[in-house]
Amino acid sequence: xxxxxxxxxxxxxxxxxxxxxxxxxxxxxxxxxxxxxxxxxxxxxxxxxxxxxxxxxxxxxxxxxxxxxxxxxxxxxxxxxxxxxxxxxxxxxxxxxxxxxxxxxxxxxxxxxxxxxxxxxxxxxxxxxxxxxxxxxxxxxxxxxxxxxxxxxxxxxxxxxxxxxxxxxxxxxxxxxxxxxxxxxxxxxxxxxxxxxxxxxxxxxxxxxxxxxxxxxxxxxxxxxxxxxxxxxxxxxxxxxxxxxxxxxxxxxxxxxxxxxxxxxxxxxxxxxxxxxxxxxxxxxxxxxxxxxxxxxxxxxxxxxxxxxxxxxxxxxxxxxxxxxxxxxxxxxxxxxxxxxxxxxxxxxxxxxxxxxxxxxxxxxxxxxxxxxxxxxxxxxxxxx
Length: 385
Hints:
This is DUF676 domain-containing protein. The protein is α/β, with parallel strands linked by helices and 385 residues long. Strands 7-9-8-10-11-12-17 form a seven-stranded mixed sheet, sandwiched between helices. A four-stranded antiparallel sheet has the order 3-4-2-6, with helices on one face. The chain has helices spanning 20-28, 128-131, 133-136, 167-178, 198-212, 216-222, 241-247, 253-258, 265-279, 319-322, 354-384, and strands at 2-3, 9-14, 37-44, 51-57, 63-64, 82-84, 89-94, 103-108, 147-153, 191-196, 225-231, 287-293, 297-298, 301-303, 306-308, 313-314, 336-339. A hairpin with a 2-residue loop joins strand 14 and strand 15 (306-308). The protein folds into two domains: 2-83; 88-384, Alpha/Beta hydrolase fold, catalytic domain (Rossmann fold, 3-Layer(aba) Sandwich).
């Protein structure tokens, strides 16, 4: 048993036949008093073998089991469902019925971020990728939700990290798991990526790697990529002074150093290779859009042995850095938009948030164009064969 203080947990390995009621029953049968739970989402995972849920408890400090007993009504092939709060790898937050499923939207968090918590409203429980976006990305003809929404998590702790991984090390597992979104023989649906901060650099590195590969799986994956929506991504580096202090002499120092504003060989190489990598994605048009911050962020300081975000304020990622990947775009101003939030809050939207409305309209336009482009490409491919 493990004490947990976070408000949202992930339950993986649920049988495809299980319902919300099944999960609530499993949680209420736990002997640690977790009866008062809310099931926020229950969706078939991208691999199609099981379901994943997100849940919360009335008592935010409830002690819950690392695993749950199998559902007595539906015994899945994965045995006991597992419960965790790290959200590593892919987590499906919403999956429409197969007949309605037209597009995938995948969100990637940033440095030191949490795959789920990074996109949750400040001080609240609303998570727009789960609680709002699925019902707003709808088919114009049927009015039904058409987007499968997933998040991707990876470990990138800054302070007291024991990891020596660099951006390429993080991008490798992400790239390998992307092939699971479109297994061989499955319907190839377009993918729109949402990335925050370091997550955008991880995404770009994965695309560069896919472009360099002649493997059939890599080609299948890259041809599904249509939209890249960047939020505060430091294409040309960021103000990493306080992050370097946090990293100290730890093994992750090189990772933090590589995303700085001064003489980053990694960023220079990525800037050189990324445009060409995009051109290998396939015949249909790709869309890149950049949101950038215009509100200063407090930086990290250590007080009484604890790191807090109470230091001097700074724009962590400048507009120049956040939009650098659009240098060769003739109508650059139509592919950028300011959000008057801090670096971390640029992807945190509450219910009825006006900034969410701005982001939603852009995602709607990109998603609908992606579907049209993908349909047209499939038609021409059929005609040519």
